[in-house]
Amino acid sequence: xxxxxxxxxxxxxxxxxxxxxxxxxxxxxxxxxxxxxxxxxxxxxxxxxxxxxxxxxxxxxxxxxxxxxxxxxxxxxxxxxxxxxxxxxxxxxxxxxxxxxxxxxxxxxxxxxxxxxxxxxxxxxxxxxxxxxxxxxxxxxxxxxxxxxxxxxxxxxxxxxxxxxxxxxxxxxxxxxxxxxxxxxx
Length: 186
Description:
Elements: E1 2-8, E2 36-45, E3 54-63, E4 67-70, E5 74-77, E6 81-89, E7 92-94, E8 97-110, E9 114-115, E10 118-119, E11 125-130, E12 133-137, E13 142-156, E14 166-173
Antiparallel strand pairs: 1-2, 2-3, 3-6, 4-5, 5-9, 6-8, 7-8, 8-11, 8-12, 9-10, 11-13, 12-13, 13-14
């Protein structure tokens, strides 16, 4: 079990304009201008019969604060958000290659945004995604991964853009934070 709590600090600029001088919508700003609270829960288990297999469940809740200085003294508050994920991951050996496939399902519920106390149109909704992925180690420190986020269900409030297919790729670096770690100098 892992349980956590934290905050999202208002560090990015929430009042940016386009090159033509048009104010960018709140969801395209670099920041929200508000302090948010975050709660996190995760549970992972491996069956004794196959210790390389993991079942993972996570839940993240974000309680959003209000930016009281949104474009000349207006207030803007993004909707609260809940994300729940269930996934399974394993380690397989194919020839001489180590492959870590995973499959997951993610539900996301986003509440309505508020502008000057009233509901903001075209915000909020329910979303369901299928997330297959694969990872393989490059060496002992680096691994390469790719995953796809496939939208299965979207129910948006009013007219708005809905999530589409996403392809994510990355390289991970694993380090040891012991005092003899020469890479980090600690």
